[in-house]
Design a protein that fits this description.
The structure holds two protein chains of two kinds.
Chain A: H1 2-18, H2 20-41, H3 45-68, H4 70-77, H5 80-85, H6 91-106, H7 108-120, H8 125-152, H9 159-184, H10 192-221
Helix pairs in contact in A: 1-6, 2-3, 2-7, 3-7, 3-8, 3-9, 6-8, 6-10, 7-8, 8-9, 8-10, 9-10
Chain B: E1 2-11, E2 14-24, E3 28-33, H1 40-48, E4 55-60, E5 63-64, H2 65-68, H3 70-73, E6 76-79, H4 91-101, H5 108-117, H6 133-146, E7 151-155, H7 163-178, E8 182-186, E9 197-202
Parallel strand pairs in B: 3-8, 3-9, 6-7, 7-8
Antiparallel strand pairs in B: 1-2, 1-4, 4-5
Chain lengths: ~220, ~200
Amino acid sequence: MWAVFWCVLKRDLLLAMRRRTDALTTLFFFIIVVSLFPLGVGTERQVLQILGPGVVWVAALLASMLALERLFAADYEDGTLEQMLLTAQPLSLLVLAKVGAHWLLTGLPLVLIAPLVGMQYHLTDTQIGIMMLSLALGTPILSLIGAIGAALTLGLRGGGILLSLLILPLYIPVLVYGAGAVEVSRIALTDTEPYLMLLGAFLLAALTLAPLASAAALKISLE
Amino acid sequence: MLEIADLECRRGDRRLFSGLNLTLEPGTLLHVRGRNGSGKTTLLRTLCGLFTPDAGEVRWRGESIRALAEDYRRELLYFGHLNGIKSDLTGIENLSIAAQLDGDPVGIDDVWQALARIGLRGFEDLPTRMLSQGQKKRVALARLILSRARLWVLDEPFTALDVEAVALLQGLIAEHVAGGGLAVLTTHQEVPLTSGQVARLDLGD
């Protein structure tokens, strides 16, 4: 069964390699949004330190939102998604593989670039470490929840806007605990534990439930 | 083997067909006919389980396809209006991945042979976006050669194909039906549908 998972994962990574620009746009969007704030609010150290965690997390939310639309759209247009529905494989597994590839291409780069953007906000090393950890736990949740919305809005006119309206409210808990973890790590590192554990719990719940929900939504969208 | 029981499908408020009953035995080809908008594609999609009928059900070996789910889909091959191939992947990659997803991975040699047989020798490792419409369709149709599915559901398989490819496809269908397979197809072209039992179904009268 996992052979199919790897097959779809490799397929999507291969497709992304053939179209590198698509994958890079998300990353650049993230970097640009994060860089705009210091230009807007000034370079005062204290202000930036307070704003930093929130800004980075909101930018991550928007960047992941931006990439979501393409998650199923391309496969929908050329009929390969329809064929996936007709294979003798559990659709939720295929969805999980697609989301996995999507996260590797759009979520993981954000985690890796976090130290660089953290420096713009004068975050301490500890804060940057916690930020990477919270992003590593949080961005997969964004992709998983987002997949449900992407599946529901598939093939709709103006699906992009609708997708944001559907999904952004669901991202709020991730934002609160993700940015919260970075914020409290400024005061005491041990205080971050509950935040990260909650993020981990969200991730586990999303991993088990979101693929099932997305698969059901895809079936409806393709009728 | 394939049974359609009291099937009714609607699109919005419009009833496309109702009270449709039909049983197909192995080695039969069903030619679905009807003018545009008479519900041919909807019927074919319903047979695949992509569309939920408003009443009635489709049975395979006596069991509802909803209940069979993956066991049914293993025996099914659907060829729709969209080719279902990725334009950034080569013909070889497309077919290997499709076969793997269908649950019976094929050797790379088989894939090369299938593409050669479908008349794409020399185009095997080009991204399919470089191919013409007809050639793309041929890549998609090469799945028929590799597939071990018992039931083929083909929606307008002959469009965009040249004379030679039409003959080849007819041969493939005839071979499949002669081997005890089932095929359901729609076409507007007057294609002689060869040997074996040919059942006809007219929609929209």
